[in-house]
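USER:
Working in pairs, take the chain set out below, taking as long as you need, and write a paragraph about the fold.
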Amino acid sequence: MRFLDHSSQLQAQLQARREAALRRCGTAAEGYAKAICPVDTGRLRASIRSQVDGLQGRMVLGTNVEYAADVELGTGRYRPGWSGPRKWRWQSRDGRWHTTTGQRPQPYLRPAMSDHAGAYSALIRISLGGE
């Protein structure tokens, strides 16, 4: 009797399928986030990307735009843990002065991930060869 060890091929195949599943989930998450992202110039929406770390078995959704967290989490009194002033003034480019207490949160990343768990589960099952 002879035994053949195909475990390394199986491991490679499972790793490839896992990465494919994460990429599919990332593409879907980008679409969900872009669909609900508030738009002024379109810069924030266009910057939303997913990144797959196959070795860690995770997908990260995010953006590199500097004001992204302010849109997602809000600013001033609307931001959790805010300890700054209740109101502040700022001057716009046209020289006019404005007073604000902050911007309400407009989540687009968190809902894109949390509101579609069933869709992500289905994508993972399909990618791994399930039903």
